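Exercise 3.2. Students should predict the tertiary structure of the chain below and write it as structure tokens, then compare their answer with the key that follows.

Predict this chain's 3D structure.
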Amino acid sequence: MTYVHVTNYPTTSCSLSCTILRSEMRGLLLLPLVVAFVCGDTLYFQPHENRNSGVACPDRKTFCPDGQTCCASDTGEYACCPLSSAVCCSDKIHCCPMGYTCNVTTAQCQKGELTQTWTPSQKASLISGNVMCPDGQHECKDGQTCCKLASGDWGCCPLPKAVCCSDGKHCCPENTKCEVSSGKCMRGDSVIMDWFEKTPALRAQNVVCPDGQSQCRTGQTCCKLSSGQYGCCPLPKAVCCSDGKHCCPENTKCEVASGKCMRGDSVIMDWFEKTPALRAQNVVCPDGQSQCRTGQTCCKLSSGQYGCCPLPKAVCCSDGKHCCPENTKCEVSSGKCMRGDSLIMDWFEKTPALRAQNVVCPDGQSQCKTGQTCCKLSSGQYGCCPLPKAVCCSDGKHCCPENTKCEVSSGKCMRGDSLIMDWFEKTPALRAQNVVCPDGQSQCRTGQTCCKLSSGQYGCCPLPKAVCCSDGKHCCPENTKCEVSSGKCLRGDSLIMDWFEKMPALRAQNVVCPDGQSQCKTGQTCCKLSSGQYGCCPLPKAVCCSDGKHCCPENTKCEVSSGKCLRGDSLIMDWFEKTPALRAQNVVCPDGQSQCRTGQTCCKLSSGQYGCCPLPKAVCCSDGKHCCPENTKCEVSSGKCLRGDSVIMDWFEKLPAIRSNGQGEASSVMCPDGASECEDGQTCCLLASGRYGCCPIQDAVCCSDHIHCCPQGTKCDIQQKKCIGRGVNLGTITMEMIEVKDNSSPQQPLQGFPLTALKENTVCPDGQSECKTGQTCCKLASGMYGCCPLPKAVCCSDMKHCCPENTKCEVSSGKCLRGDSVIMDWFEKTPALRAQNVVCPDGQSQCKTGQTCCKLSSGQYGCCPLPKAVCCSDGKHCCPENTKCEVSSGKCLRGDSVIMDWFEKTPALRAQNVVCPDGQSQCRTGQTCCKLSSGQYGCCPLPKAVCCSDGKHCCPENTKCEVSSGKCMRGDSLIMDWFEKTPALRAQNVVCPDGQSQCRTGQTCCKLSSGQYGCCPLPKAVCCSDGKHCCPENTKCEVSSGKCMRGDSVIMDWFEKMPALRAQNVVCPDGQSQCRTGQTCCKLSSGQYGCCPLPKAVCCSDGKHCCPENTKCEVSSGKCLRGDSVITDWFEKTPALRAQNVVCPDGQSQCKTGQTCCKLSSGQYGCCPLPKAVCCSDGKHCCPENTKCEVSSGKCLRGDGIALDWFEKTPAQSKIPAATIARKDNSVQCPDEKTTCPDKNTCCKNKDGNFGCCAYDNAVCCKSGTYCCPKGYICDTLPEICRMPEAKEAWKNTANLFIQRILRKKVAGQP
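Answer key:
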């Protein structure tokens, strides 16, 4: 198109006295121009001839005249060969006619025996482009002028070489001046025209590469470099060459061997070299944590944190909320931006800044920058590789790009067998640091401030360098003050914001060493020193060296003779020296016997003994029971803590103190293993498990059965289970020896002297529940166990309360009596703990508490009957902690000494749920399956529970449900409210990669030789290449012998796979619709099928709802009835699934999902019963993926000669005509609310920005607006095809080129 002139320009030439102006309309290549003449006071326009007709060069910046050829020159730009379809010579200076080749040696063009002189190329012309503004970010159209706007951004004046007016809004033609007061353009003293208004400039847009971090300039193409990062090809829509370094123009291919770009069989030019891509950079604010976008300015907000002003080099206003353009000032009173005394605009509001995010390494302490990869260093700590998703090299020092491997011997990164580059060196990772509060115990996050709470402990204000308010609860930003009466933060006399609330501080956690007294910092390892005390190695999970002084990183060993750390036979570094461990210190109370924890205060109790207040430097209240924070006083009458005359909080209750042994240490008996302790007055005895237990009498005799003990001066009669003889201070006694209770068999509490493990919980008689040491197990009304917070307590008959030893419960008054005297209120029981097993690393297997999970030779887990045991390499035995396995002798060694025979592992428990009668639902162990009113199963949180008839509640065993009152009854007595059921779990299978096959939890999907999936009965198994067997994790298959190998040793016979389960849907009567397993097909009011979310459901006549089995629909009320009773609201149906077939290339035939279309000998299509199958040339058979058809023998071969019988194809189905599925009543409404598409179509925007229809359901709309792809596929632009996600190089993949012809569809207009 051309511009229409405003008035007819004069016939007489006025070109000498007129200013010539230019404007532009941009097109793809042809750029129509307008010439403007200023003659006198009048502006004239006339169309200008097109100057840019010709051949556009690949850079889209230059062009050659018609009939010439663009050739790359030695300057990197394009030149024009004065021949049509010419051959560009490799010297980048000359060219030859089409059909000739360049002979650089003779400087001639050759065609067989014909020769002629080659032709030099001439410089190409520039296509009119945009004008880049001085900030390098904005652009104006060709023929316009960049002018600064009042905002500080750039705008465009619609004239070339224009004069930019000082008002920041207008402009005038060249050689004129702006008269701001009148809004005119002047030449000398004459007004020649009104001035022009500027328009905002364009933002220079880069192309963002797929990694989301790298960018290329407009008109370039992102290509992956051999490093795995992105580079830029200087051509649009270029072809990226596989060498990771070069590229070729669109619609050509790379000839890597010759370094050329080919179109068909013709060389068209040398290839281009890529340049590194730009990295998207943010502006980092002064706090080092916050970031603003490029072209924005960091400004402090009133909170003290940073926000972003949407202008470059902006002025930050003092109100902490707004900003103004560069070279202006903020007028806070009016909310305006001023230049000098002139108001230029309203101010801008800041937005919150971005927070810089690092990648947190697996240790949870180390961090790497975004776009880097955490890699372990040889020290065991983490370092940062400067590449995303990098490969960490085994030398602990270097790394390589994604999809390469480290060649440690040469220090190179390899892709396949090709060397691609030197490797990269890692840098030390950042360490996440907290702010440590003055008490040395509490911590706040970086960027927060420690403030004392009213309790005397520390909390965290969410601002840096904050002011802590005197109310002990709030804080304000730096350089403000707290106005407590109004709850505001003030700057000077001005209110700036509401104050902030503090949050509790983190508590600094140390690693407690096995002696229970020593501690090391987080990220260190406790190691015994030669003194027998503990020291700290400055590495996590370190190896403690036998010299008692040094340590080495995880997975290395100490070479004591040389003072080095070895990995295998290689020296990796000098060893590290340990430092003395911290000692956990208690506060010793004035009696010299009692102790409180660090951070607590000793206070006398009313008994005269000491208790502990859970606050530092606390005030002890005179009631002998409570305490208050430092600098407060106790108001005993009200039970409050006062500061001045103000109540600040309820008081605190004291806790019993720890008793010490008289030397200022907590009293306990250390057992011979150096790790276990018993309470003072008890005796350590070795248990059968190899651990120590505690006999509850002093200086006891430990019986040889490792189960019982007897008093001093008696002896154990194992056969009679008696203690016989004269006990010290007991006289002549014969008493029962007491067996330690077996947790699996419930029994009543027994009197005597059982052995109890150190600091274990008390196991209740049901064998499942536990109470803390010093508590008593008491039955609750529910039949389960609860915990009374007293030792040897009396359990009250109301099944809810308890009283101290030697008292009795007075249920009517809720008191505890000693004789006839009330001594105190009774205590309430709390629910007991549930005994927990140790879960093994596979997440499926479990061992008992105090056992250790060890891998068996099968790859599954077994249980060693020792805590923290050493698992022996034979996959069958184990040894105690701090020993090693001597496999040849079957012994456990400490140093060079045999200490005992090794232990045999037992198979681990499998975590089992209770399977409900429907075979699909599951409840947790200790729960009961009960049917819900919906007909599905729920879980009652009690074992062997009674399921109530209301379909919603349940009661304990041996009770009955009283539905009218919602209670559980035992006999005629009400015992408790009933319990509500929760939905049951659904059994989950492992879904195989084909999306159709499934294996049981704890199994592994493996491909069978048929190409279908089978199930290996092991988790994370290795699938053997014979397509029939599998081996445990971390072994390999020895196919020739049928064994599983670990290293060079045979460890077992291999396992046979079994066929996988097939995910089955319920097919509805129409043969097209499907519902999920456990649902019911019901007709909808439309006549199509929907799915009721219940099995064997009743379909309601309204065509929309359904009810559970054995109920009926009451349509008038919308309820489901059983008999005359309403049991539940009805359920709504959901649309059924549509069975999807694979459409064959003829567009008419179809095969089932998971089959492959193959041509029959008739020329029609048949279906091979395998996915991605190979179609055999006999037109009748097919073979699995990655095999070939051996037609002569009727076999399928896989490279190494493993063969199987081939499969026979079946005839394909005919495709349903489009008219039957494009139902108007089910048409799809597009978002523009104007366009409709047929049923099972997808609305996609076309290249004009309007909506069109893609003939796939739930399709992927391609960005070009020209094509669309089926669900699950990706639109690929090189070339434009639909590809599967796993096909990484679609343009090379011939299978995908075939898919292109099948799957790619045009986006059609509205039907």
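Discussion points: Helices lie at 1218-1221, 1294-1303. The two ends are 31 Å apart (CA to CA).
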